[in-house]
Amino acid sequence: MNDARLRKVLGRLPGVDPEKSRVIPLSGGITNRNFRIESGGARLVVRLGGEGARFLGIDRRREAAASRAAASLGIGAEVVAFFPRDRALVTRFIPGRTMTPASARRPEAIRRIGRRLRQIHGGPRFPGRFSPFDSARRYALLARRRGGPLPAEADRALSLIPALKRALGKPPAPAPCHNDLLAANFLEQGRTIRIIDWEYAGMGDPDFDLGNFCVNQRLDEPQQKRLLSAYGIPASGAALRRLSLMMLASDLREGFWGLIQSRLSRLDFDFSAYARRHLRRFLKGARRAGLTK
Predict the structure, then answer these.
(1) Which DSSP symbol is given to 190?
(2) Do 50 and 32 touch, CB atoms closer than 8 A?
(3) Cα–Cα dist 88/253, whole Å
(4) Chain segment 158-202, per-residue pLDDT in tens
(5) Strand 42-49 vs strand 79-83: parallel, antiparallel, or unpaired?
(6) Distance between CA 21 and CA 37 in Å, rounded?
(7) What is the spatial distance between Cα 155 and Cα 51, in angstroms, rounded to a whole number?
(8) Closest of 221, 23, 235, 227 to residue 107, by C-alpha
(9) Nearest CA to 209 among 129, 282, 121, 102?
(10) CB–CB of 47/54 below 8 Å?
(11) Where does the pLDDT of residue 51 fall: very low under 50, low under 70, confident under 90, or very high at 90 and above?
């Protein structure tokens, strides 16, 4: 094993011999490096947090607390160990099939995910707050500091935050939220759906999770109604309106996330184009929602 940091983490786990462990790198990570570890009868996942995570608002202690809360509900993976100084989280490996946007749009999948989200939002609280608007503003500030002026779409999007917040109205009491509901963060185990990767979790508006899931999977209105019904919310015009506004909030946050990644990441990926795509979709949606004059 050539990775000194991973070797150090494995050496601190009871019953795990770094020299006799099978290490399988897991693909898909952008801010972290993830490994599946097989040692004796144990199957684990080690997440080594990246250096730039703090610029993205990721708090590793909060991630560990949220992961434990999700595990207590039978939704997330069991946390085996957390080493703050090494920015390392170790969980049990969850066998299952990673979902895709297409598989997550299936009627039964939407119903199961809606019920899962209801469980999360009513589950154990954990430290830390999340706001898509605070995240967007923070990313914008850091992007300016690290790369100069923002694109015109970004300045226009920032100017619409007050109108979007007014349209949403008074937020409900903060609830435990995941805040990064990409299809790749859902695992299917037969009829059970598990949710992983809690690094953006925080106490926030539960409707953001619903809107984030809808926009990431491109749910149409009948599918949005199905999600609300499974969650336990009557699919009224007001509920659909608030859901659509939170879908805008998700695009807003995602656009600025892409913008700061364009200044930080060394991956061979066009984060600038990614950011512009989300910000333009946000601006188009804001016009449809009547947030612009």
Answers:
(1) T
(2) yes
(3) 26
(4) 999 999 999 999 999 999 999 999 999 999 998 899 999 999 999
(5) unpaired
(6) 7
(7) 28
(8) 227
(9) 121
(10) no
(11) low
Looking at the chain, the whole-number percentage of residues with pLDDT higher than 70 is 96
Which are the contacts of 181, defined by CB distance < 8 A and separation ≥ 6? Answer: 195, 209, 212, 213, 216
pLDDT > 90? residue 123: yes
Q: Taking a C-beta distance cutoff of 8 angstroms, is the pair 91, 83 a contact?
A: no
Cβ atoms < 10 Å from Cβ of 127 = 11
In the chain, the amino acid numbered 289 is: A
Our CA angle for 19, 83, 50, nearest 5°, is 90
186-189 β-sheet, strand order: 97-98, 186-189, 192-195
How far is 36 from 91, CA to CA, in rounded Å?
10
Which tokens in the block code for residue 2?
């050539």
- C-alpha dist (Å) from residue 95 to 2, 68, 120, 188: 26, 18, 21, 9
Sole residue written with tokens 């969980």: 91
* CB 12 within 8 Å of CB 81: yes
| Three-state SS annotation for 232-277 | CCCCCHHHHHHHHHHHHHHHHHHHHHHHHHHHHCCCCCCHHHHHHH
pTM (global) more than 0.70: yes
Q: Is the dihedral of CA 275, 280, 281, 285 positive or negative?
A: positive
**pLDDT score, position 153:** 93
State the average pLDDT for the chain.
Answer: 92
